[in-house]
């Protein structure tokens, strides 16, 4: 399956990007949400790397994900800290909310897991519909230049006799559709013997800055601010490692 995040993938994610680990985004989102009193929605919440610190800061954050394994780890992280989290098994294209939210946040390029451009535009419109009028969408994207970047080398995480490894192999890069597909192989070794393995296809879509701004406007967003490297109001330069869009939801119709 594509972008499945099974049990080994979820455990690797937890080890590699533990709750609270920040690329500058945890502090950025906490600051940008200052004054937000209503609920905040985080799609593709994963193991709660960003959600948990925001809950600890007093924000009413609820999240969803398509991976039961990621959600199980997220719930465990919340229980360990005595936090009550509203988490559900949903996807970008079919999520629902009980009530409108004040903000939707999508850190760390998770929106790029939606590889069909038309579907992505429809999801942006769903985000707007989920927001109160004037509510905000804050969303990170990797730079378009990453589409041509070399893949990361094989990696490993050791704990006692256990060793988890991740090997990434290219499958396809489509510069017309701005998508990449990689083959991920996760392995769990114990005392030198392979005890479990998972193979997944990992697909991403990359966006140009102007292209995504136009998609936001088409979806009904206004007052769009574009920032580079988690410096709000500072336009991304050519070497920016992350581009953040912040936009307000206009009224339907």
UniProtKB/TrEMBL annotation:
This is Methyltransferase domain-containing protein. GO terms for molecular function: methyltransferase activity. One of its GO terms (biological process) is methylation. It comes from Kaustia mangrovi. Residues 40-135 form the Methyltransferase domain. Keywords: Methyltransferase, Transferase. Pfam families: Methyltransf_25. CDD domains: AdoMet_MTases.
């Amino acid at each position: 399956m594509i972008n499945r995040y099974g049990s080994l993938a979820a455990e690797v994610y937890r080890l590699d990007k533990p709750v609270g680990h920040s690329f500058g985004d945890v502090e950025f989102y906490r600051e940008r949400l200052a004054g937000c009193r209503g609920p905040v929605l985080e799609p593709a919440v994963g193991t709660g790397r960003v959600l948990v610190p925001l809950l600890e800061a007093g924000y009413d954050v609820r999240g969803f994900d398509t991976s039961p394994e990621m959600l199980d780890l997220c719930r465990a992280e919340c229980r360990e800290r005595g936090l009550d989290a509203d988490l559900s098994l949903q996807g970008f294209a079919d999520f629902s909310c009980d009530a409108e939210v004040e903000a939707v946040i999508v850190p760390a390029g998770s929106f790029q897991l939606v590889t069909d451009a038309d579907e992505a535009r429809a999801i942006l419109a769903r985000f707007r519909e989920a927001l109160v009028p004037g509510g905000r969408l804050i969303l990170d994207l990797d730079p378009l230049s990453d589409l041509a970047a070399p893949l990361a080398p094989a990696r490993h995480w050791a704990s006692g006799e256990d060793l988890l490894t991740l090997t990434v192999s290219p499958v396809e890069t489509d510069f017309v559709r701005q998508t990449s597909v990689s083959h991920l192989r996760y392995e769990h070794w114990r005392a030198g013997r392979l005890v479990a393995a998972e193979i997944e296809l990992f697909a991403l879509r990359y966006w140009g800055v102007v292209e995504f701004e136009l998609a936001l406007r088409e979806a009904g967003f206004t007052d769009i601010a574009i920032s580079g490297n988690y410096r709000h109001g500072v336009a991304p330069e050519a070497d920016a490692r992350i581009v953040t869009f912040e936009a307000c939801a206009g009224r339907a119709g």
